[in-house]
Amino acid sequence: MKSVLADGCILKLQNFEGPFDLLFYLIEKNKMEIYDIQINEITDQYMDYLFAMQELDLEIASEFLLVASTLLHIKSRLLLPKENEKQEEEMDPREQLILRLVEYRKFKEFAGSLKNREEEWVGVFYKLPEPVQLDEPEEVLLDLCPIKLKESYINVLSEFKEKMNDPSQKMNKIIEHEKVSLKAKMKDILNMLKIKAKVYFSEVFNLKANSRLEIATGFLGMLELVKLKKAYIEQENAFDEILIKTAGDFTLEFEEQNDYKEEVV
Amino acid sequence: MDLKVIEGIVEAVLFASGDSVSLEKLSVVTEIDKKTLKLIIDNMSISYNKASRGLMIRELDGSYQLCTKKEYGQYISMLYTSRKKQGLSQPALETLAIIAYKQPVTRAEIEKIRGVNPDGVLLKLLEKNLIMEAGRSDVPGKPKLYGTTEEFLRSFGFRSIKDLPMLEMNEIESVVAELPVD
Amino acid sequence: MDLKVIEGIVEAVLFASGDSVSLEKLSVVTEIDKKTLKLIIDNMSISYNKASRGLMIRELDGSYQLCTKKEYGQYISMLYTSRKKQGLSQPALETLAIIAYKQPVTRAEIEKIRGVNPDGVLLKLLEKNLIMEAGRSDVPGKPKLYGTTEEFLRSFGFRSIKDLPMLEMNEIESVVAELPVD
Which domain holds residue A195? Predict the structure, then answer.
């Protein structure tokens, strides 16, 4: 039998799409019936082809090797004397291969008819939608489709996540979560009044470090203390510093004053 | 060439062009002299007058263009408005997605996730009967809860809420982990 | 409404849409029940067969679309030489054939039949909008499923997937049963 190399001008080592493509080529070249493959011959020629590729330093895709091993396995089985007929139940590997080849051939044939259809229909032309002017303002419209719904959800969650990861947003969040409570501020002021009888409002806060929110809370706290008669305030002129004075009472019973309990500004 | 075939070619070429095509070009394509071709097209125009034809040939400065007849314009806009009814804007779809997956959900939760006041969109979704009020939350202020409707299921072809496409594992890990806890 | 007017509306709407329009929508626009409307459109299709018409109505999976007749394509190409589409490669056609018949089908199943990694080809087919992802399989790993699109029907002249010629797969088994012994 001629080697594939010698046969090179016929084969031209054309690029077979896959191992089945090559097998089909060999089956057709040898004028075999697909159901009546001479495994010995086909295996030898298939291997020759792979060797030829190797000699030419062509990369052999793993799928070619996989089919090669299947072919060799079938060949070796056929060479063995058929002593144990019991193995009948096991599927004939040749049968498996033929099944796959037949299935592949069906699709190959259909691919051929698709090609014809493609050529036949390539001369059909369509037109673009007419630009239709609607009286109502244009909205980008989407079809109601479950996949789009899911995508939108993931999209909106991702955006939400990004916002969370944005450091400036994070700061806002931290500040928001900082529980600037009226209760705490009132306690702060009373504690300061314990140490000094008079405190300027500005002393209650370090203006550089404290947020406006905290100052406002402090101001409310101060007013509450005055209302509860725990402190007095004085301010000589408008916009002057406010002076907070102790009333000598440093107790605060919030338990009875439910109003303040959870009041977070 | 058969006169019928020439008419067919003219119609096909005008259709595929979408735009107007000059008599000159049509003459080249059909290999009919311009004068004869003009007569043929004029004759075609007359046969387009039949009620069963939705199209007409317009002559524009020595060019020809296929277009729909005026009297059928209202039906075309119906096509687009009926499409409109079935569609949702991106903000609406996003809001609907949040409601569908997190229901029952409050307005505040939606606003938190989308970062935008959702009132307008909620109203639209309520109007379209895609969402409904679904009781009230236990949190202070007892805000309204929203859920999806039967119309929602119908519109998306779901049999039940369980039919909502599942979020993939990797999507869940990267995104849902960051979901606000309510 | 007069039958002629309905035909006119259908033609005008299909023309304006450019794209395919579902029987459903056409039924809403014309206020004719779907069954009757289908008969009317089928009848229109026949009258489009005349040589003097350059257009035809195609049915695509329960939708309708206006397009030019095949036999006039050459004249249109004369005007638009650059618009010539490039055909699909053999691997792409084979992969498409497998997807068309076995849809919804996974990448692994395609690979098994062709014996070749299909990734590159799948990407191309997706780009050309001939196939689409069609959910996920229930098998472990939940691999993506692929199916064909309306564009596939359009490009290859099918009305629906049911139009595909039958492949007699069951004949295989009976023949293999009689394997020769060598």
Answer: 182-262
Give the tens place of pLDDT for each residue, C84-110: 567 899 999 999 999 999 999 999 999
Q: In 10 A of CB C101, how many CB atoms? A: 19
Query: Taking 50 as the threshold, does the pLDDT of residue C146 lie above it?
Result: yes
| Rounded Cα gap, residues A134 and A237, in angstroms | 65
Q: Within this chain, do residues A202 and A110 fall inside the same structural domain, yes or no?
A: no
The yes-or-no answer to whether C3-77 and C90-177 have a common fold is yes
- Looking at chain A from residue 157 to 216, which residues have their Cβ under 8 Å from any Cβ of chain C? none
Q: How many folded domains does chain A comprise?
A: 2
Across the beta sheet with C105-106, what order do the strands follow? C105-106, C144-148, C131-136
Tokens of A166: 């944005």
What average pLDDT does the structure give for chain B? Answer: 85
Q: Take residue A139 and report the two structure tokens written for it.
A: 């909205």
CATH code: domain B90-177 is 1.10.10.10
CA neighbor of A161 nearest in space, from B180, B104, B170 = B180
Instruction: Determine the Cα–Cα distance for residues A70 and B22; give it in Å rounded to an integer.
Output: 65
A142: closest CA of chain B, how far (Å): 5
A90-147 per-position pLDDT tens digit? 667 778 888 888 888 889 889 999 999 988 888 888 888 877 655 544 444 456 777 7
Q: What are the extents of the domains in chain B?
A: 3-77, 90-177
| pTM (predicted TM-score) | 0.58
Spatial separation of the C-alpha atoms in residues B107 and B112, rounded to whole Å: 9
Q: List CB contacts (< 8 A) between A158 and chain B.
A: 174-175
CATH classification (class only), C3-77: mainly alpha
> Cβ contact (<8 Å) for B8 and C79?
no
Helix or strand run (H / E) with residue C42: helix C34-48
Contacts of B113 in chain A (CB under 8 A): 156-157, 160
- The pLDDT assigned to A85 comes to 55
Kindly report whether the peptide bond that precedes residue C118 is cis, defined as omega within 30 degrees of 0: no
Q: Give the span between the Cα atoms of C48 and C59, in whole angstroms.
A: 13
ipTM of the complex: 0.65
Weakest-pLDDT range from A147-161, A170-184, B24-38: A170-184
Q: Which amino acid, one-letter code, is at C20? A: S
Look at the block and give the residue holding tokens 């002559």: B59
